[in-house]
Amino acid sequence: MNRPSVATATIAAAVFAGSILLVSSFFRFSCTRPSFSIQTFSHTDVMMALVHYVTSKEVPQQSREEISESFSVLLKRAPCNFLVFGLGRDSLMWHTLNTGGTTVFLEEDLNWYKTVLKESPFLKAHHVEYRTKLSQADDLIQGWKQEKLCAPENAYLKGNQRCRLALDSLPNVVYENEWDVIMIDAPKGYFDAAPGRMAAIYSAAVMARTRKGKGDIDIFLHDVDRKVEKTFANEFLCEKYRVGAVGRLWHFRIPPVSRRWNETGDLSKKFC
After folding, report:
1. CB-CB contact of 80 with 101 (8 Å)
2. How far is CA 36 from CA 86, 87, 102, 201, 216, in A?
3. Domain hosting residue 224, numbered range
4. Which controlled-vocabulary keywords does the entry list (predicted)?
């Protein structure tokens, strides 16, 4: 990937910072308010982001077009509860775009977690472990219906050890709050021993089904050019809820079961 010129990077960063200032000034529509320490708007956050992206030689994992899809949602919904699977070169950006809300990051790579937190210790990030491996993806997609605690009518996350797709031991902050926007850009899913994103996708679907607050959950899934991401998204996030697709990013807007009035069948017993 070619590195942007200094001039290009400077202009992009300036536009980015200016957009954040405007967004922070005009946010009026708010989603579920965090029940724990709310970040207050600080120009320091914006300035730190500006300096970071002007001086960085690294390009964020997502393309400009992909980022724009998520940004358009945050423009309407922030400040809100924003859960991000993964820490990356774009973490400071996501944190800043949700200024005034609460953004929590979940990262499985301990060394990378330490590296990012050393540079940005103010990020609300947690190191987490997964019970799955990418090599198990076929077994998991074929066998989840045989475990009753994976079934949609019984599904829950915290402490659900019997359902291998349930993220059962995340930090309590994840279970204690409802998430308005979820970004799935981790864990790793490109070699057999990696955790894969199967459990993250399933767990996000469970969070969406059981939501009690106003509004639907916007879920963004990256790397849908890969078989596992695409297969599990179609199984649990559902094609009928997909409202956007840009590059390798799919955007789903999923209503909780309690508000699926116009759908037929026993909604408690199906994801899609």
Report:
1. yes
2. 21, 21, 8, 25, 21
3. 6-269
4. Membrane, Transmembrane, Transmembrane helix
CATH number at residue 206: 3.40.50
Exposed, middle or buried, 63 (CB in 10 Å: 0-12/13-18/19+)?
A: middle
Number of separate domains in the chain: 1
Please give the model's pTM, rounded to 2 decimal places.
0.82
Q: What is the DSSP letter of 144?
A: G
The residues that bridge with 103 in the sheet, in sequence order, are: 82
Residue 146 lies in a domain: yes
pLDDT in tens, 187-209: 999 999 999 999 999 999 999 99
pLDDT (tens digit per residue) in 69-124: 999 999 999 999 999 999 988 898 899 899 899 999 999 999 999 999 998 899 99
Is residue 218 within a helix (H) or strand (E), and if so which, with residue range? strand 217-222
> What's the rounded Cα separation, in Å, for the pair 210 and 40?
28
**Nearest alpha carbon to residue 96 among 124, 55, 117:** 124
